[in-house]
Design goal:
alpha+beta, 4-stranded antiparallel sheet, about 25% helix, globular
Length: about 120
């Protein structure tokens, strides 16, 4: 899915997390990854996946409650991991095989700290 079709007028993309190359080693995961869109804007965190049956989930940046980064030994060596983003009243979004997961966490916290995110 093209990001230009998703963003609202006046919304600015701040960060686009990338998937680790390790995520492409499995055919099923390859198809899922090719149909995945992830971005962080000045207003929200967005994740969608699926080709036949699309799943889309977003959390307003001001409502992001926690960002959990999980990295095993291979993840630490090759700098990828699983990210769990929890939002107030929005549930949890799980992203697997994300490159530089701590950078994702830093980017979201920087947006929140800059006060550009709405609190409602």
């Amino acid at each position: 899915m093209k990001i230009k079709k998703i963003i609202a007028p006046g919304e600015t993309i701040i960060y686009e997390p990338k998937l680790s190359k390790i995520a492409y080693l499995n055919l099923g995961r390859l198809i899922r990854n090719l149909t995945t869109t992830i971005f962080v804007s000045d207003k929200r965190f967005f994740h969608s996946h699926g080709w036949v049956h699309r799943h889309a989930h977003e959390i307003v940046i001001g409502k992001v409650e926690s960002i959990l980064v999980e990295q095993g030994l291979c993840g630490r060596l090759f700098n990828y991991g699983t990210i769990r983003v929890s939002g107030t009243g929005a549930g949890t979004i799980v992203l697997q095989y994300i490159k530089r997961p701590l950078e994702f966490q830093r980017q979201v916290r920087a947006i929140q700290g800059a006060g550009t995110a709405p609190n409602s």
